[in-house]
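[[Encoded backbone]]
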Amino acid sequence: MAQCTAPRNGHRTASGRDACPACSSRSRGYGGYSSYSPSARSSLGNSLGGSSGRSSSVKPRWSKAGSSVVYTSAEVRTLTPVRQNVEKRSSKPDLRDIFLCHAWDDRKGVAKELHDLLEFLDVSVWFSEKDVLLGSNLLREIDKGLAKSRVGIVLVTPSFLDRIAGDGIADKELSALLATDLLIPIVHDTTYDDLREASPLLGSRSGLNTAEDSISNIAEKLAELVAL
């Protein structure tokens, strides 16, 4: 029997899954995430990477009965203030669920993958490919996007860190942004140490990490976080 090449965290990209001898046969014929039936959503984490396999897992209060999504205690502590703000903003009309901030170079890679997973889970996403004009100031667009969204995600990749260095983002601007408790960093193909070096304020905010969990599981956690 073929063995999965990523049994713990799953495959971070569709191409990685297709290259796996165990998983590629399961993914053939699906035609993308949208081809899954609604009844398959509860098993999305297993079909696209499965549980992270960590033994110390807990359920947050916003996780619905019957949910298969599990969290670490640290993740619950990180996400609880964000969830509280989601609930406070529940009465505001015409809000997107999530604002996805990412580097330009990631727009057709991991950012698009995360966007598609979230939309498959019925999460409305503010995404630069659809909503942000090219050449716009990063912080201004994050600020506007957060104002029109329940949660903001910053996808931290090597390309994003390069953009921070190039744009010279001011600490006082990030301080005002992070004070909203609506922003979640998601680190991918880099580390929080690298993030803290590039932006101490953004790096001081706990978040999620694709080195510790599959991107499909992260998408499910975010979908639960914004569900009302």
Remarks:
- The chain has one domain: 14-226.
- The radius of gyration is 17 Å.
- Residues 14-226 form a domain with the Rossmann fold fold (CATH 3.40.50.10140).
